[in-house]
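Researcher: Hi, I'm a grad student and pretty new to this. My advisor asked me to get structures for two proteins we've been looking at. I'm not sure of the right format, so I'll just paste the first sequence and hope you can take it from there.
Model: That works fine. Here's the first sequence with its structure tokens right after it:
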Amino acid sequence: MLYEEIVDEELAIMDESPDEPSKTLSAHEIQVPLNSLMTPPVTIEMGASAQDAINLMIDRHVGHVLIVSAGILKGIFSERDVLVKILNKPVGNLRQIPVEHFMKADPQTANVKDSLDAAILYMAKGGYRHVPVVDEENHPVGTVSVRDIISHLVEHFPQDVLTLPPKPIRRAMKSREGA
């Protein structure tokens, strides 16, 4: 079969209407308060070295740290910053460069009174994977991540999320492998 025929077949399958009605989240499932989803913040003070921030992320098994000054949120430093701004770049000794040189200053934040739908909106608009949750004085009280949202969805739709077949079911998956 020619490549073009395979692509046309897959596009036709994708255009077909699904056999089952799609599931949607109800208002009470998407308007969950962030304080029930967020994880405790992992913070580091301004002036700390980029290497200290990376070590903290490794030690705490997190993908980001919040940068604070006297307890006030100033920025966020994530594994994406390491990949884009540090890896394979001539940046010098990371033990001597302050983390604020690589952080995203004044990140989009959510308020403790916000709900899950607000965090999803912030992530979608900004392309973020982590949204700091702050109180009225801009003190970090938590973080909501894509992982937290996925966990919430799996909790409400375990069968639907965990057993999704690949779509479209590719012809290559139907054929035998091997010699």
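Researcher: Oh nice, that was easy. Here's the second one.
Model: And its structure:
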Amino acid sequence: MLAASLAVHLRDRGHTVSVVTRHPDAVSALTACSYDVCLLGLRLSPDPLIGMSAVAAVREASPASAIVLLTSAMTPRIRTAALRSGAHRVADKGVSLGSLDKLLAEAGDARRQAPPPGCAIPSRGRVTKREREVLDLIARGLTSGEIASTLRISTHTVRSHLQSARAKLAARNRLEAVAATTWSLSEG
């Protein structure tokens, strides 16, 4: 209902709008057609990494599109992770329509001028292939035990790889490490 209402509002202002309800559909829509801005809603789930992986997937599918993330769980942690995953702006779902219009315009302008804020992540070294594998599996929702079983290593080694990757990426936690790795992989 929120998406349909926003679509009507944006169409009334002359914007071309596609409404999708799943992030794979957003990726397909962005691949098929060029959009200046992608307004992405973050649903609450037990694992906020799911939403951050959606931001990263949309960013990868359409690097030229600005991403504005709408969330009802606006916390500093979510905001930081979203910006590091490639969002240009993050807003609370309770934002007024006037403020949303302004945010979308700013995001479109910022997209044309510079890379999204937060994408330049401080790094003290390159993340190894194994560290990337561990972070990728964390992003997919696996526990340390499941990662150990998948990679045929001990849980101690999983924690060691995670700790090393976090230090290299200057990440305070798993979420920041996963978000930072998304950008380090897309940059080369």
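Researcher: Is there anything I should tell my advisor about the second?
Model: You could mention this: Confidence is low (pLDDT under 50) at residues 114-124, 183-188.
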